[in-house]
Design brief:
Blueprint: H1 5-11, H2 13-24, E1 30-31, E2 34-35, H3 38-50, E3 54-58, E4 83-88, E5 97-102, E6 123-124, E7 127-129, H4 133-152, E8 161-166, H5 175-182, E9 189-192, E10 200-204, E11 206-215, H6 230-249, E12 268-275, E13 289-298, H7 304-321, E14 331-334, E15 342-343, H8 349-362, E16 368-371, H9 377-384, E17 388-391, E18 395-396, E19 404-406, H10 407-424
Parallel strand pairs: 5-8, 5-9, 9-17, 10-16
Antiparallel strand pairs: 1-2, 3-4, 4-8, 6-7, 7-19, 10-15, 10-17, 11-13, 11-14, 12-13, 18-19
Helix pairs in contact: 1-10, 2-4, 4-10, 6-7, 8-10
């Protein structure tokens, strides 16, 4: 069946925007180890059923042996946090595809927002605002609409088409994506529509979250006792990370494929710092401990052991340079799974199709590059050997105030995904 992709998707533009906006209005914040995704999943399940599309909603821990799997990260609470899969089966003679999105978002913080409220779904010009608008409810809605369009137009394809809305991606979760794979929802290729500014990314960065803990000798020393303030030691190490560690880890002689033009090869994010009693009032005194949380990105070619050795060696060097007593050396604790950097074949046929359809829809050449995302793509490539592409619309302020997605970009993205599906699954 030949269709005009531009005309068809333009006719569904309001459906795409409305679904994205309604999902944004439903808070689905991930507050690890807990999460609040169920209401959004229920809404999405009802939407698919109203469009006569088959669904499967299931609890992660009901998946056989998931907690025994080497890729499972323990310590999360999955009560009332179901995954949702929707699908249209082909005739079994073609190639299959899965669109893998996460329904959870980071928290509404930092607040207050300036242009909208976190769950407003406000539209101003080309921008749709709200927590999760860019990361990644808008692109989730776009891929859901692909299934609706195929169903409405009674287009029958040879390959199976799967859509999944998984929980617990944020905060380096990935158990939701793992659960769908173990339940058997797999395909010949996968597309993860994370925000990429329309870059086509067959490879993405990885990383891990750590807590760096400093012990001290508390008190106020009025009696002459020795005081060791852990805040000072922590501040020295944080300064070393900013001034030396970032420079050292970005001094890379041989760059991985597709990352040659990357300006920020490896990022660090210090997300939390805590020391002492944070309540107003209280006593004046040196706290017994202080800690900070840091996420460190890695490039393809890195594994968990390499990252751990790198951090430990750097901290040992910083301890010596800052004359920190070995007795009060910081304790390094990993607080998330290691997100494996994902690598798919940059010459895979699905890349050629996406690039071709990108050119057909936009009139521009698609930019194939390494993704600055550290997400769930590694579950597909590392553990299940499924060729995967991360590709999503333009926007801004992900994880920040006034997060937004470009509506025009979102519509172009939908057109490219629909055209790619028709060609791949024909």
């Amino acid at each position: 069946m030949n269709i005009n992709i531009n005309d068809v998707v333009d006719n569904y533009k309001s459906d795409i925007i409305n679904l994205a906006s309604e999902l944004i209005k439903i808070p689905s914040e991930n507050a690890a180890p807990n999460g609040n995704e169920k209401e959004a999943q229920d809404y999405l399940e009802k939407w698919f059923k109203s469009n006569h599309i088959s669904t499967d909603k299931f609890n992660l821990l009901d998946v056989k042996d998931i907690e025994k799997n080497e890729a499972y990260w323990p310590g999360r609470n999955y009560e009332n946090r179901p995954n949702l899969v929707a699908f249209i089966k082909g005739n079994g003679k073609g190639k299959s595809i899965i669109f893998s999105s996460h329904i959870d978002t980071v928290s509404r913080d930092p607040i207050p927002w300036n242009i909208s409220t976190p769950f407003s779904g406000t539209i101003i010009g080309d921008k749709l605002y709200g927590r999760g608008a860019y990361d990644m409810k808008a692109s989730l809605a776009a891929t859901a609409l692909v299934l609706k369009i195929l169903k409405d137009l009674k287009i029958e394809l040879s390959g199976d088409i799967y859509f999944e809305s998984v929980v617990d991606e944020e905060n380096a979760g990935a158990n939701g994506t793992l659960a769908s794979r173990l339940k058997g929802y797999n395909a010949d290729v996968a597309i993860v529509p994370e925000p990429t500014m329309m870059n086509i990314c067959p490879s993405t960065k990885g990383g891990q979250l750590f807590e760096i803990l400093f012990k001290g000798l508390p008190g106020v020393c009025f009696g002459g006792e020795e005081i060791i303030n852990p805040i000072y030691n922590m501040a020295r190490i944080i300064s070393s990370f900013e001034e030396k560690y970032v420079k050292a880890i970005n001094d890379i002689k041989e760059l991985p494929e597709l990352f040659e033009d990357e300006k920020n090869l490896r990022r660090i994010v210090i997300s939390k710092v805590k020391a002492g009693d944070l309540k107003l009032g209280g006593n004046i005194g040196v706290p017994s401990e202080a800690w900070f949380e840091i996420f460190i990105q890695v490039l393809p070619g890195y594994n968990e052991e390499m990252l751990h050795d790198e951090i430990q060696n750097f901290i040992n060097l910083s301890i010596a340079e800052n004359n920190i007593n070995q007795e009060f050396s910081p304790i390094i604790k990993k607080t998330s799974r290691f997100l494996y950097p994902a690598v798919s074949d940059s010459n895979h046929p699905i890349l050629k199709i996406i690039k071709h359809q990108f050119k057909e829809i936009t009139g521009k050449d698609g930019n194939v590059k390494g993704g600055d995302i550290s997400g769930d793509m590694g579950i597909f490539t590392k553990y299940f050997n499924i060729p995967t592409v991360t590709f999503g619309p333009c926007g801004g302020n992900a994880h920040g105030k006034d997060e937004w997605v470009s509506i025009n970009s979102l519509i172009d993205f939908t057109k490219i995904i629909l055209a790619t599906t028709l060609e791949w699954c024909k």
